[in-house]
Design goal:
Residues 7-236 form the ABC transporter domain. Keywords: ATP-binding, Nucleotide-binding. The protein is α/β, with parallel strands linked by helices. The protein has one domain: Rossmann fold, CATH 3.40.50.300. Helix content is 37%, strand content 26%. It contains eight helices and ten strands. The chain has helices spanning 45-52, 74-80, 96-106, 111-124, 140-151, 170-185, 220-226, 232-247, and strands spanning 5-16, 19-30, 34-39, 60-65, 68-69, 81-84, 158-162, 189-194, 205-210, 213-218. The strands form two sheets. It has a six-stranded mixed beta sheet, with helices on both faces. A four-stranded antiparallel beta sheet has the order 2-1-4-5, with helices on one face. The N and C termini lie far apart (41 Å).
Amino acid sequence: MLNEKIITVDHLTKRFAAFTAVDAITFDVYKGEIFGFLGANGAGKTTAMRMLCGLSMPTSGKATVAGFDVYTQNEQIKKNIGYMSQKFSLYEDLTVKENMQLYGGIYGKSNQFIKDKTAFILEQLHLKDEANKLVGSLPLGWKQKLAFSVAIFHEPEIVFLDEPTGGVDPVTRREFWMMIYEAAANGITIFVTTHYMDEAEYCNRVSIMVDGKVEALDTPAMLKQQYQSPTMDDVFLKLARKATRSGD
């Protein structure tokens, strides 16, 4: 992992009327890192990610992604990142191959690049026989792995993954994380949100959000040591209880 910062976040805040969804969060993500953004459902993870992806304007604070400002350069951010949303993000009424061709075209890749990359992904995912099948007909696990492959189809600097393993079986979850490791080894920075605390163990560092705030940030090993907990589940429970007490 390099010491080059690829995401910087400084007191980033998002309010919806009187409700503060993201409350002055501050952290950095380094190039080539697998950065876990953990928290329970409703903790503010998706809202924070949408701001970093250029999809939602912050209320206050500062942030840059791949060197671009989230306020003034959100279109440049979108061109330099991959994004896999919490809801399945491919077109189910297009074939496997057509989805890849579509996204390659959206990102302005050449016909030759799209052809070569499509062939590579079909081989990698063992989907050559399904290339002309509608995506909607695939099992969920294959859909999720395909969606990740499409999110990094254009070889972005950073890929944002929002709850990518939700609803899939444990075997598929492990296979998905192997794909994440491979992408990171190829130089892509991974920013992944999850509410599965065991997935924190796969990350270089994790940030834990509770009620819109970053309550802890470190390596999984250091967090478990700091909170004298055998698992990340226990770390999270202690942080949640601490936040509840301080809010009383």
